[in-house]
Automatic annotation (TrEMBL):
<comment type="similarity">
    <text>Belongs to the protein kinase superfamily. Ser/Thr protein kinase family. CDPK subfamily.</text>
</comment>
<dbReference type="Pfam" id="PF13833">
    <property type="entry name" value="EF-hand_8"/>
</dbReference>
<keyword id="KW-0677">Repeat</keyword>
<dbReference type="InterPro" id="IPR050205">
    <property type="entry name" value="CDPK_Ser/Thr_kinases"/>
</dbReference>
<dbReference type="GO" id="GO:0004674">
    <property type="term" value="F:protein serine/threonine kinase activity"/>
</dbReference>
<dbReference type="InterPro" id="IPR011009">
    <property type="entry name" value="Kinase-like_dom_sf"/>
</dbReference>
<keyword id="KW-0963">Cytoplasm</keyword>
<dbReference type="InterPro" id="IPR017441">
    <property type="entry name" value="Protein_kinase_ATP_BS"/>
</dbReference>
<keyword id="KW-0479">Metal-binding</keyword>
<keyword id="KW-0206">Cytoskeleton</keyword>
<keyword id="KW-0418">Kinase</keyword>
<keyword id="KW-0067">ATP-binding</keyword>
<keyword id="KW-0808">Transferase</keyword>
<dbReference type="InterPro" id="IPR008271">
    <property type="entry name" value="Ser/Thr_kinase_AS"/>
</dbReference>
<feature type="binding site">
    <location>
        <position position="63"/>
    </location>
    <ligand>
        <name>ATP</name>
    </ligand>
</feature>
<dbReference type="InterPro" id="IPR000719">
    <property type="entry name" value="Prot_kinase_dom"/>
</dbReference>
<dbReference type="InterPro" id="IPR002048">
    <property type="entry name" value="EF_hand_dom"/>
</dbReference>
């Protein structure tokens, strides 16, 4: 890309003090659960390996971080894991679980085997506008979801975007949340300069910035995809900082002659030095340059509506179990469902307004009360919106024939101590690891639905029966 990416980081301090979410780390040997495979990545604190759950064909990626290299940052890393457990979007890498022993903290994630965006740009030289548009929309969707959930990434760069498969047109996933942080209000500012030099916003260098720093980084990524170069580059890092603070970008070279005025307009609005005037992710997605990707009015097919209606009738225990199972399904198994969700979602959720519109466009005349009940029965978190995992859980059982291996893997996930049975406490811990809080009242309710009390044990056979009843 003309210039090597600087690896310098001003600071690795993380700020997760305001978080109040359950711990998600298991204290059992990870090799008792997974067979480790080849190394697929290396970093400053450890390595990433391909792995496979024992007794399963499902492949994952495991990042093993050496505690001896963390230098007292163990708690910060654990808070990063807790943020990961909360994220739920098709364009963000899926977190499965985490393990800790005396030497390592191991993070189990989705295995994105298609390589990163940085390598794609290097190999291609640059992308045309159509390719850039498709990729940039996915980047903005991921970041818009983060910002709506009051999370700033702070290290957006092509190397942190992974393709889930090697095939052309594979979905892009945002990864590496090591420098991410929470904010309470959109006006909140951060003082510690973090990130990778070429992608830093001017206000980050000056030490007073907001979540809008991510938008500047996206502008740099867009520039790199279209031209194959950085907008700001020099042999000397101090010179790069000066160029960034000035914000003058060169779009006069020959390679820019074929780039549309709309693309250049969006680029300037992303790389706007004044972050108050810089576009937000949602505003960028509404830019006319993305109009070729705007589809016809969103529809909902009959099988999806039927899946929603059937899902509303199953027990809370079945819903909770399905919410775990969908996190364990492979990319291939949910690829079509991911596309369906992205067609329907607004800012990472399906709202009642969106669902009602999709149903009307498809010719279904459901009463408002019925639509409201559907929403209520699907949204496990009871927030009036259907998130990604809830959508998958609602449609996966009817659109995808559940295999015994997948049900077994879900059981194994809940039976973290490998006792051969699960208890109400195992269930509570499993859902907390997935980012869901479960109070005792709800726990009693889901146990009673399958004829069990709070002290009961559930065998694998009984667990399989629970899933089989979904298809009856």
């Amino acid at each position: 890309m003309g210039v090597n990416v600087s690896k310098r980081q001003f600071s690795t301090m993380l700020d997760f003090s305001s978080l109040d979410i359950p711990m998600t780390i298991k204290n059992i040997p990870i090799r008792s659960v997974y067979n480790f495979g080849k190394v697929i990545g290396t970093g400053r604190f450890g390595i990433v390996r391909e792995a496979q759950a024992k007794g399963s064909k499902i492949k994952v990626a495991i990042k093993s971080i050496s505690k001896s290299l963390l230098h007292g940052m163990d708690n910060a890393l654990k808070r990063e894991i807790e943020i990961l457990a909360k994220l739920d979007h098709p364009n963000i890498i899926r977190f499965y679980e985490a393990y800790e022993d005396d030497q390592y903290i191991n993070i189990v994630m989705e295995n994105c085997c298609g390589g990163d965006l940085f390598k794609k740009i290097i190999n291609a030289g640059n992308f045309d506008e159509d390719q850039t548009r498709i990729i940039l929309k996915q980047i903005l969707l991921a970041v818009n979801y983060l910002h709506d959930n009051k999370i700033v990434h702070r290290d957006l760069k092509p190397a942190n975007f992974l393709f889930c498969k090697s095939e052309e047109g594979a979905m892009l996933k945002l990864a590496d949340f090591g420098l991410s942080s929470r904010f309470t209000r959109r006006s909140d500012t951060f003082r510690i300069a973090v990130g990778t030099t070429h992608y830093m916003a001017p206000e980050v260098i000056n030490g007073c910035y907001t979540f809008k720093c991510d938008i500047w980084s996206i502008g740099v990524i867009m520039y790199a995809m279209l031209s194959g170069n950085f907008p700001f580059h020099s042999k000397f890092e101090c010179e790069i900082y000066k160029q960034i603070e000035k914000g003058d970008i060169n779009i006069e070279d020959k390679i820019w002659e074929s780039i549309s005025a709309e693309a250049k307009d969006l680029l300037k609005k992303l790389l706007c030095v004044n972050h108050f005037q810089r576009l937000s992710a949602s505003e960028a997605l509404a830019h006319p340059w993305f109009s070729p990707l705007n589809k016809q009015p969103v529809h909902m097919d009959q099988s999806t509506l039927k899946a929603f209606q059937e899902y509303s009738k199953i027990s809370n225990f079945q819903k909770e179990a399905l919410s775990i199972l969908v996190k364990l399904l492979s990319v291939d198994e949910i690829m079509e469902l991911n596309s369906m969700f992205l067609d329907l979602e607004v800012n990472g959720f399906i709202t009642m307004k969106t669902l009602n519109k999709a149903l009307k466009n498809s010719g279904y005349q459901l009463a408002r009360k019925e639509i409201k009940e559907l929403m209520k029965s699907i949204a496990i978190d009871k927030n009036g919106k259907i998130n990604h995992s809830e959508f998958l859980a609602a449609v996966v059982a009817s659109k995808h024939h559940l295999q015994h291996e997948e049900i077994w893997l879900t059981f194994q996930h809940i039976d973290a101590e490998k006792k051969g049975y699960i208890t109400s406490n195992d269930i509570k811990i499993a859902f907390e690891r997935s980012g869901h809080k479960m109070n005792d009242k709800h726990l009693h309710k889901i146990m009673s639905e399958i004829g069990k009390n709070i002290q009961s044990q559930i065998s694998l056979g009984e667990f399989v029966e629970v899933f089989q009843k979904i298809h009856m």
